[in-house]
Design a protein that fits this description.
Aminopeptidase, GNAT_dom, alpha+beta, acyltransferase activity, transferring groups other than amino-acyl groups, Acyl_CoA_acyltransferase, globular, 97 residues, 2 helices
């Protein structure tokens, strides 16, 4: 049996941050990114506000990730620059279930 890594999610529980999310192009649009993110929500403090930084609205690279984050309840926050590239922070308030 061959095991394949098709997606990767890196979080910082200390900073309540999604640091990195990637899914192999052959496995995109299958819900893998959504499932990785939903699973990660259980790992954070239930009272925390999670942050993630992605491309800005006017950047074509941001269409899919922005749609994904919004579909999971993230809202747009401040415009930022990361490594000299224009980005935008998104936030999601977790609530104890």
């Amino acid at each position: 049996m061959m095991i394949r890594i098709v997606g990767l999610l890196i979080i910082s529980k200390k900073k309540s941050e999604i640091c990195f999310l990637a899914v192999h192009p052959n496995y995109r649009k299958k819900g893998i990114a959504s499932e990785l993110l939903k699973f990660s929500f259980q790992l954070f403090n239930p009272q925390s506000t999670i942050t993630v930084t992605t491309y800005r609205e006017d950047d074509s690279k941001g269409i899919a990730p922005r749609r994904l984050y919004k579909s999971l309840g993230f809202i747009e926050d401040e415009l930022t620059m990361e490594y000299g590239y224009p980005t935008q922070r998104f936030i999601k308030h977790l609530m104890k279930q």
